[in-house]
Design brief:
By secondary structure, this protein is α/β, with parallel strands linked by helices. It has 13 helices and seven strands. It has helices spanning 8-15, 32-40, 53-62, 80-83, 99-103, 129-135, 138-149, 154-167, 173-183, 194-205, 207-221, 235-247, 263-268, and strands spanning 22-25, 45-50, 70-74, 88-94, 222-232, 251-253, 276-282.
Length: 284
């Protein structure tokens, strides 16, 4: 599936950029939002972050016609302060994981394709989903499934994994999905493995910790009057963003409620359906 940037018009409107604005795109991906930012005002520049080296190379190719106005940074957005040495006018986060990851079986993010149990954004790190599934205790597995996946059947799923791995190491996404499906006879449209795969992905990449660190770093480099815009895709992340904005004395929310995609966008891009955009301004 072709990557389609979510809530594109709403993001550009919310950033309220002026000529020569400097903007952090904390989650560059294939650069759909970055291109729109560069096209929205004259002289804009973007500092684009991506912790996935492959994604960054693809972004460079996609954006080669405007690359002279982009600083490409291979790092997580928690490292913003390390790389950004000037005050910026805006910072944008799209903290859903990329469709590139979902659609590539070799990255192991999805139970829809058989692949290795990997789930790393940064391929140089040692922790993988396979390490967690085969090495963490039954109680630890149940805890992350419950906390990070909001999975109500966390305990029986953890037990099923614990029993299965005694017979042999679990190494494939299809194996894990089958174990979960056999442990939980759940009806409905959602696959029984959905929440567990979410939990593993978040745990492997420390996604919630990264969000907190990234938001903190971004606000520090924002100019007074600068805009912070964040798209999240599930309740755990959205709660962090909401509370972060609410609890900071130097931020003022400009969206009382999160902005959500309209029916037309959801129809053309089903992966947008759970997106929520929150925007805040750094007080002068």
């Amino acid at each position: 599936m072709k990557h389609v940037p979510v809530l594109l018009k709403e993001v550009i409107d919310g950033l309220s950029l002026k000529e020569n604005s400097v903007v952090i795109d904390a989650t560059l991906g294939l650069g759909g939002h970055t291109r729109a930012i560069l096209e929205s005002v004259t002289g804009a520049r973007v500092i684009g972050f991506d912790r996935d080296a492959r994604n960054l190379e693809l972004a460079k190719e996609e954006l080669k016609d405007v690359a002279d106005r982009i600083e490409f940074v291979e790092d997580s957005f928690s490292g913003i302060e390390t790389h950004v040495k000037e005050p910026v006018d805006a910072a944008f986060f799209d903290i859903g994981f990329s469709s590139l990851h979902v659609d590539d079986p070799e990255r192991g993010f999805s139970f829809m394709h058989d692949g290795p149990l990997d789930m790393r954004y940064d391929q140089s790190q040692e922790l993988t989903a396979e390490v967690i599934v085969n090495g963490w205790t039954r109680d630890e597995l149940a805890r992350i499934f419950r906390k990070l996946g909001e999975e109500s059947y966390a305990a029986p799923i953890a037990k099923a994994i614990f029993v299965a791995r005694k017979k042999g190491r679990i190494t494939r996404t299809s194996e894990l999905a089958e174990i979960i499906s056999n442990a939980v006879r759940r009806s409905g449209k959602q696959h029984p493995a959905t929440k567990v795969f979410q939990a593993l992905r978040i745990a492997v990449n420390d996604e919630l910790g990264e969000v907190e660190k990234g938001l903190e770093a971004a606000v520090k480099v924002l100019k007074p009057g600068g805009v912070l815009a964040v798209i999240s895709f599930h309740s755990l992340e959205d709660r962090i963003v909401k509370n972060f904005i609410k609890n900071r004395e130097d931020l003022e929310a400009t969206t009382k409620r999160p902005i959500k995609p309209g029916l037309e966008e959801i129809k053309s891009n089903p992966r947008a359906r759970s997106a929520k955009l929150r925007i805040a301004v750094k007080k002068v």
